[in-house]
Write a structure and sequence with these properties.
alpha/beta; 16 strands; binds flavin-adenine dinucleotide; binds FE2/S2 (inorganic) cluster
């Protein structure tokens, strides 16, 4: 069992968990993830390690509640245990001194961008972060991102906080103003990463995205996380999750992410029904 040492609501739909997992905490690097299963009958879901403390032996996971398992995770209390936690999985982010690096996070994607921005800064880069969300109530880690960035720009789609814009529009605006970026990383929902790929290609910035296809084992065996990059089949869990933004087939990623949409809805409906006592009727 992996104990939940601390739990905190960051937004009405997003919770932060501090989990005791000393073996994983001793090895994990920015860009890597874990696959967890809450209990014996639970499904496996991948979550990025948003932070780690090697001395304390803890991992920080930040979870947006969108379906059955993430909502069920939201019912865990401090002191509860998670049955399985496998990791660290995936390739770590390649960190080097590029010069000026843009760290771009959309929605829950700000969580995985945070340790990358910090590591890029520690490697001597000038870090310019652009973070955004649909609205103010979904924006996370603004203070933490500001602490690891030389400059930070905040946007919301609805203009409820920061500038009313998409993060990619803000990136293009900075380039128009004369900023030169030597590297960029963008993480968020697929439409955001697709737009990020277009913007960075247009502005001639070498860029990576972190792909989030459906995953099961996270170790390259089931094939579920298949993506197409530069026309070749790759498994995001072992070959990624980060890939060159300009080479990703986002249409295929979108289509594969939606494969089980009916089953996911049914699973959530059954869970909500069970939770409200409907099953005992
Ligand atoms: C490498 C990686 C890192 C991730 N990191 C985070 C994170 O740090 N925080 C966070 O909130 N979310 C993260 N996700 C997404 C998270 O795994 C899904 O939101 C979660 O699995 C949804 O499960 P659910 O049962 O709550 O929702 P469901 O209703 O089952 O699914 C909702 C949507 O989530 C996606 N999804 C469903 N099952 C999986 C699965 N097994 N693997 C991947 N995606 C799935 C699908 O697009 C689906 O349409 C990450 C995904 C990947 C691949
Ligand atoms: S999740 Fe099974 S091969 Fe990647």
């Amino acid at each position: 069992m992996f104990k939940v040492r601390k739990k905190e609501a960051l937004t009405p739909q997003t919770k932060l968990y501090l989990i005791e997992a000393p073996m994983i905490a001793s090895k994990v690097l920015p860009g890597q993830f874990v696959v967890l299963r809450i209990h014996e009958e639970g499904e496996r879901i991948p979550l990025t390690v948003a932070d780690f403390d090697r001395k304390e032996g803890t991992l920080t996971l930040i979870v947006q509640e969108i379906g059955k398992t993430t909502k069920e995770m939201g019912t865990l209390k401090e002191g509860d245990g998670i049955l399985d936690l496998v990791g660290p999985l995936g390739k770590a982010t390649h960190i080097e001194e590029f010069g000026t690096v843009a760290c771009v996070g959309g929605g829950i994607g700000i969580a995985p961008v945070y340790p990358i921005a910090r590591a890029m800064r520690e490697a001597g880069n000038k870090v310019i972060s652009i973070i955004g969300a649909r609205g103010k109530d979904l924006l996370i880690l603004e203070k933490e991102m500001a602490e690891v960035s030389d400059e930070i720009y905040v946007t919301t789609d609805d203009g409820s906080y920061g500038k009313k814009a998409f993060v990619t529009q803000e990136l293009e605006r900075l380039v128009e103003e004369g900023y030169k970026f030597d590297f960029a990383i963008g993480i968020g929902p697929v439409p955001m990463m697709r737009a990020f790929a277009m913007s960075t290609m247009k502005c001639d910035i070498p860029a990576k995205v972190s792909l989030n296809p459906i995953m099961i084992d996270g170790t390259g065996m089931c094939g579920v996380c298949r993506v197409s990059v530069a026309g070749k089949t790759r498994f995001a869990c072992v070959d990624g999750p980060e890939f060159d933004a300009s080479e990703v087939d986002f249409d295929l990623l979108c289509a594969r992410q939606a494969t089980y949409i009916d089953e996911e809805k049914e699973s959530l409906d059954r869970y909500e029904h069970h939770k409200c006592g409907g099953c005992s009727e």
